[in-house]
Specification:
Pfam families: LysR_substrate. With 177 residues, the chain is of the alpha+beta class. It has 2 domains: 52 residues, no CATH class; 96 residues, Periplasmic binding protein-like II (D-Maltodextrin-Binding Protein, domain 2), CATH 3.40.190. The protein is built from 6 helices and 8 strands. Strands 1-8-2 form a 3-stranded antiparallel beta sheet. A 3-stranded antiparallel beta sheet has the order 6-3-7. Strand 4, helix 2 and strand 5 form a beta-alpha-beta unit. The radius of gyration is 18 Å and the shape is elongated.
Amino acid sequence: MAIEFVHSVGVLNLLEGEADIAFRVAMSDPDENLIGRKIGTEHFALYGTQNYADKFGLPRSSNEFHGHRFVTLMREDVPDILYQWIVSHVSPDQIINTFSDLEMLHASIKAGMGLGLIHARWADTDDAFVRCFDNISDLSRPVMMLIGPEAYRRPEVKAFTKFFAPRYAAIFSDQSS
């Protein structure tokens, strides 16, 4: 058995066999034809950098967004829940850039261009990011392990999910923030 990990913001089609198993932050309900299990919850928070904080300060809540600049992500193949949250909380002139590439979003935040929403688990491991305030509960989403029905019929896929799923879920059980 070979395992290839493909990290992608885009969604691979499990029903068409583009992958056997996917771990997804579920921004919308998964296809009902997929076999799935919730294995955790992903949280999002607003981040900037120390450079940005030195120039503009950091908001301590969504009530303190006035005078701040924001960068966002918008892709056709990804639900726009994070983008819509920003748009509903700030005026259009506060959004200085919208990216279609996640790495560009992260780079612009790191460059001090503005504040942006990022997966808390990932951003909290990068010292370049400074969290503005607690996780935004409205943006918390389940992390799903999804399997195409054809792939699930294969014994090696069943064995992998039986072995890997509880270990991956344990990562999320340690997440308190």
